């Protein structure tokens, strides 16, 4: 008996890397899977359905159920297509993992509008496009689980990834709202910040310098299985970071007690005088909880 018996999972960007690992593990645990992937290089140019079809072939060869979808998830029609395939082939949409993404890295000073728009469109708008029809179905059919993929680039920051970081930070904000709005409908929403060695990350300095420290996609997948299964209970609105360097941990915004002015007539000098109450110091950050 599998952890996802009777469930239907929709996974974007599942033709390789993290999404492929999720799809195969979910199928082994009993889920029917819609494998979405346009194929092509990591900058988002081109398309190739064969990547999704190869994953489907591997799943069905093991006795699982899956269908390939090559829709462009950064469009409303594409998001609807992924959802429609789930309903058409399997009749349900219990789990959604928004994983698809592209990279067009460069320093902010060298940025251009086209690359900015494309990265935002695929990551942030793509998450919206795929989530909207699924969220509406879950709301009317007893709930479900949505996992949105953010990144430490958006939660903390990373050199040369202003477009990517902005998109991933936006996904975190979207997830927070979805968790609030979905709670009364039994829709659980997670944010995932994975760190794995894939074709998307292979040339990042931290992985080139120390590839042995990075998790494989198969090392990330069990954490995502936990998130979408009943093992995680009624948890929602949480960010789970998973990486080789720091393992599995919850990440969250921290807030100081702060200083409340006695009246509205206060000056910037007052902020300076009460800086110890307003800003974090290293002593405020415990060994087990890292501020971000």
UniProtKB/TrEMBL annotation:
Gene3D superfamilies: NAD(P)-binding Rossmann-like Domain. It comes from the Bacteria. Keywords: Oxidoreductase. PROSITE patterns: ADH_SHORT. CDD domains: hydroxyacyl-CoA-like_DH_SDR_c-like (cd05353). InterPro entries: KR_dom (IPR057326), NAD(P)-bd_dom_sf (IPR036291), Peroxisomal_Beta-Oxidation (IPR051687), Sc_DH/Rdtase_CS (IPR020904), SDR_fam (IPR002347). GO terms for molecular function: oxidoreductase activity. Coiled coil: none annotated. This is Putative short-chain dehydrogenase/reductase.
């Amino acid at each position: 008996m599998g952890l996802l018996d009777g469930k239907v999972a929709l996974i974007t960007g599942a033709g390789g890397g993290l999404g492929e690992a999720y799809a195969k593990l979910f199928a082994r645990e009993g889920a029917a899977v819609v494998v979405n992937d346009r194929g092509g290089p990591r900058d988002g140019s081109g398309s190739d359905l064969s990547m999704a079809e190869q994953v489907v072939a591997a799943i069905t060869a093991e006795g699982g159920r899956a269908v390939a979808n090559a829709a462009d998830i950064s469009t409303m029609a594409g998001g609807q297509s992924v959802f429609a395939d789930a309903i058409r082939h399997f009749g349900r949409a219990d789990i959604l993992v928004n994983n698809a993404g592209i990279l067009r890295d460069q320093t902010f000073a060298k940025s251009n509008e086209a690359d900015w728009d494309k990265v935002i469109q695929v990551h942030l708008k793509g998450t919206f496009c795929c989530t909207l029809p699924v969220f509406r179905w879950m709301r009317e059919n007893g709930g479900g689980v949505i996992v949105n993929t953010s990144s430490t680039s958006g939660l903390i920051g990373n050199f040369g990834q202003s477009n990517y970081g902005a998109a991933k930070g936006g996904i975190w904000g979207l997830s927070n709202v979805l968790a609030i709005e979905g709670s009364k409908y039994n829709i659980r929403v997670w944010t995932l910040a994975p760190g794995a060695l894939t074709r998307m990350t292979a040339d990042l300095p931290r992985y080139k310098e120390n590839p042995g420290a990075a998790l494989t996609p198969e090392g990330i997948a069990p954490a995502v299985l936990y998130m979408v299964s009943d093992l995680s209970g009624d948890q929602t609105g949480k960010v789970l970071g998973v990486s080789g360097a720091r393992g599995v941990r919850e990440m969250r915004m921290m807030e100081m007690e702060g200083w409340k002015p006695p009246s509205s007539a206060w000056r910037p000098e007052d902020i300076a005088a009460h800086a110890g109450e307003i800003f974090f110091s290293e002593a405020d950050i415990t060994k087990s909880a890292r501020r971000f």
